[in-house]
Amino acid sequence: MTFFIKRNDTSPAIEYALSTDDGPVNLTNANVMFYMGSIISASADVLNATGGIVSYQWQVGDTLNYGFFNAEFEVTYSDGTKETFPNNGYISVHISPDLGEP
Question: pTM for the full model?
Fold first, then answer.
């Protein structure tokens, strides 16, 4: 998956469906973090706990630098175990330069 956004934009949020071969991941009582390179380490929102749908709402400064970045969502389940998605590779985030900013 490649997510595209322009430099300094904070919308749209990045959404991702967490799943395994068994289907959607149940995120009830789980904590989810979003990581992008060395730039972002922040809490993600669970949009649908039983459907495994999460999102991260970009903050000011998150998309300051343009280029390609690796990203992932890390789940900490209620029993303390952790699982990272995707578990094979990364989400590619492409931040494009924009014409409206110097």
Answer: 0.94
- Domains in the chain, ordered, with CATH? 2-96 (2.60.40.3350)
Residues sharing a CB contact under 8 Å with residue 7, sequence separation 6 or more, in sequence order: 63, 64, 65, 66, 95, 96, 97, 98, 101
Provide the Cα torsion 74, 77, 81, 87; round to 10°: -30
> Taking Cα atoms as reference points, which of 75, 69, 90 lies closest to residue 26?
75
**Structure confidence by residue, pLDDT tens digits, 72-96:** 999 999 999 999 999 999 999 999 9
